[in-house]
Amino acid sequence: MAKTNPGRFFEDYSVGQVLHHAVPRTITDGERALYHALYPARHALYSSDEFARNCGLPQSPIDDLAAFHVVFGKTVPDISLNAVANLGYAEGRWLQPVYPGDTLRSESEVIGLKQNSNGKTGVVWVRTRGLNQRDEVVIEYVRWVMVRKSDFDAPAPETLVPELKKSLDVGDLLVPQGLDFSNYDFVQSGEAHRWDAYNTGEMIDHVDGVTVEEAEHMLATRLWQNTAKVHFDLTFRPEGRLIYGGHVISMARALSFNGLANAQMIVGLNGGAHANPYFAGDTIKVWSEVLDKAETGVSGVGALRLRLVATKGGEPFELRNEDGKYLPNVLLDLDYWALMPI
Amino acid sequence: MAKTNPGRFFEDYSVGQVLHHAVPRTITDGERALYHALYPARHALYSSDEFARNCGLPQSPIDDLAAFHVVFGKTVPDISLNAVANLGYAEGRWLQPVYPGDTLRSESEVIGLKQNSNGKTGVVWVRTRGLNQRDEVVIEYVRWVMVRKSDFDAPAPETLVPELKKSLDVGDLLVPQGLDFSNYDFVQSGEAHRWDAYNTGEMIDHVDGVTVEEAEHMLATRLWQNTAKVHFDLTFRPEGRLIYGGHVISMARALSFNGLANAQMIVGLNGGAHANPYFAGDTIKVWSEVLDKAETGVSGVGALRLRLVATKGGEPFELRNEDGKYLPNVLLDLDYWALMPI
Amino acid sequence: MAKTNPGRFFEDYSVGQVLHHAVPRTITDGERALYHALYPARHALYSSDEFARNCGLPQSPIDDLAAFHVVFGKTVPDISLNAVANLGYAEGRWLQPVYPGDTLRSESEVIGLKQNSNGKTGVVWVRTRGLNQRDEVVIEYVRWVMVRKSDFDAPAPETLVPELKKSLDVGDLLVPQGLDFSNYDFVQSGEAHRWDAYNTGEMIDHVDGVTVEEAEHMLATRLWQNTAKVHFDLTFRPEGRLIYGGHVISMARALSFNGLANAQMIVGLNGGAHANPYFAGDTIKVWSEVLDKAETGVSGVGALRLRLVATKGGEPFELRNEDGKYLPNVLLDLDYWALMPI
Questions:
Q1: What is the pLDDT of residues C242-286, one digit of tens each?
Q2: Which of A313, B82, C38, C283 is most solvent-facing, going by the fewest CB within 10 Å?
Q3: Could you say which of A22, A29, A236 has the minimum Cβ distance to residue C209?
Q4: Which runs of E-coded beta strand occur in chain C?
């Protein structure tokens, strides 16, 4: 009975190692429709082929976060099956849109290792790339996780902590080829606010909330072929199935439409923390803060650096207590770049 | 924090005003499949491309009610965000089938206004049109809602109550171009009953029932990009998330297959009342009454005017108590025209 | 009120009778995506068009079990509406892959009848065929059910118990035209184990488990247009909605990925028993036993005969108690043939 994958342990990783993750996936209009059923997603570029063509794209792409989830889901059996904690993200970039019919696969390179002083766990840094059927990288990001050792006697690897940018510069961001907001329809997009209208430091309460059900987060997580037990098996976690962190990211992003309807494309992920676990029955509410803004160099296309915070039940606009710890109601603290018509 | 849409209040509407609703939506095979997962829909014309071609259409259209929900969902942020009640529908017409790949948008014209005597609310009548990517109207209907005033001192508008037909005449109905029932396959459609077999006044108990779950109605309502809080946010409505009225319409229509399998296309909506709110855990059962029948002028295509009643748990075939009020178990009272082979 | 289908009773069947089942169904990328949301399906051939092309197929087919459910669902109103029990399956064969765009219909021939000694029920054997839009048989299987009599005085038919194979021979199996595993990618498929690596008698514990929700099994069952009341109507079964047996088959097959990732295509169904009913809230876990292995005659393509057992909560590797009865935690005992690269 040894044909199943036990997952990798800390001692199984070495710097420079490249892991080719199974299983490739063709994404279609079906995944696109499901994304709209699972999340209150209304950004027009991802809702209408006509709107997308009017913005210079061949058709409406798959939601940037759906593409991210597909790429991420593949890494779970190789990276986080024996993970104790998902510690962070950095240097995430969307390098080109994913369209229905594209087939994605993922690979990760180990770029850092650090055994913990307890000798029982260690931190693994990987740079993951999602590639399409033409071997073009469509997404890349760094993620680090704490992983158990299986053999406590295995020698500690040489410590290598990669240097990662706190935030991508606007020059690191890729504006999709052909993107053109000169005919952008602010009536059909749902809001009149251009890039000009947003100021660094501005806060936006997105008002809407969604109470999450077990069936929904499991449908979503399976759709991305992320099959980690903790999300599905109540006998494994009798205190409650943990909801996949990506579910709250997508829910939060979709809920941010109301106030950020023109923050159309996600092109950079600077960092993110799943501040507290969340469970079915919790109600997700969302606020945003404008962290920075920049011109992209492409005429008419601005970039907004946004903090996206999901809370349980809509707590006040604070993240941390006086000790610097996340408040118990904070679920997600995400830092990303989006493109917006100037 | 003022970038979110507060919705319109009664004093914000004026007769003749045209509202262009966001967000356009491309409908695909994905939405089609989801419709079949969400509702026990079995009408053959909407299930099989082969069956549809055999009836003169290029392929199987998107369910008429799915198209309606897409058009309707867009109007919510502009029409019913501050609505106290959805009062009625009239003069609904399906003007051409919607196919996978079509992109729909919606616009509404204010056709009536009447401030209530309390000075705090008023009734707004709108005629909504759904248009496709070729700017062809695919659906139109009148809807009226009671909306709150924000500024009680705002002057009352001149009262205009539009004259609306109690029921569409058969001459108002459009038979889709090319529709031809001469090769209609009564074995594959599931029932042998033609238009001839139905008599005005006839009642049909559709037998089947479905107990509704929270996850299902939220998936459905989101799919139509209807994001009204009352359907999703339990902290906003601790007594229970209200199920979108369109969910019971689609459930009821699908459940009416058993006895009306050949009532293939919905072409007219004469009126409809959401008689009582309903909630997850309720079991929907359905009965129909034949209100009228007419020939359409297209050879072989008859029209049946049907009352479709959804009840909680399958109450007897009555609608109202002695005071004329809907019985507490009645959820939906819908009056529509469908096309059927003669 | 007699327009609804009361279903067939035992006395309504006669040997040789052919039943043409409604409603035909076009299967698309939408159904494909939903299958991946409903089940943790990861077999690469059904996940990636690129992987499928690399195996000689034109694109990724619809999951074999999804095709089975579509064919099966159509038979319910004609075969099992008044069934007391679903007794067994035999001689199931997948004769060609189903692709997005294909339209399926079903027909069944009555091949056996046996009235029970109580005079109130009888057993009906049917051979069901699923056909595509080119009238090619894509699936066939034998199923037998115990059906109520409506008229106890109706004479018993002549008893005919068909001879059915306990198991299909490898020669009965059809390898899809063009299937070629010579470029099979064992990295992208998720496991390195070839046909060679499996031995008759070997047991595999698939480790993963899923706790099932009401919304999920109803979405799935409706998607296949199986509308049997017991699955949907809590007022009809206040003790709990029975989950469609096919839901546990698909869940079990998907969960068997971990350890059988290269058992790509299901081509034969030798038999199957739904050992105990199951309900939302139950957690499905799965184990497999290799019953037999054979070469198919097609170069590089081996066949594995597998027993797939789903249990509630992951009971030990036993099926039956000392009286030969299924243990109470056993949900499914399925015997099938799958194709695997040699």
A1: 999 999 999 999 999 999 999 999 999 999 999 999 999 999 999
A2: A313
A3: A236
A4: 18-26, 83-94, 103-115, 121-131, 137-148, 203-211, 265-274, 283-295, 301-312, 330-341
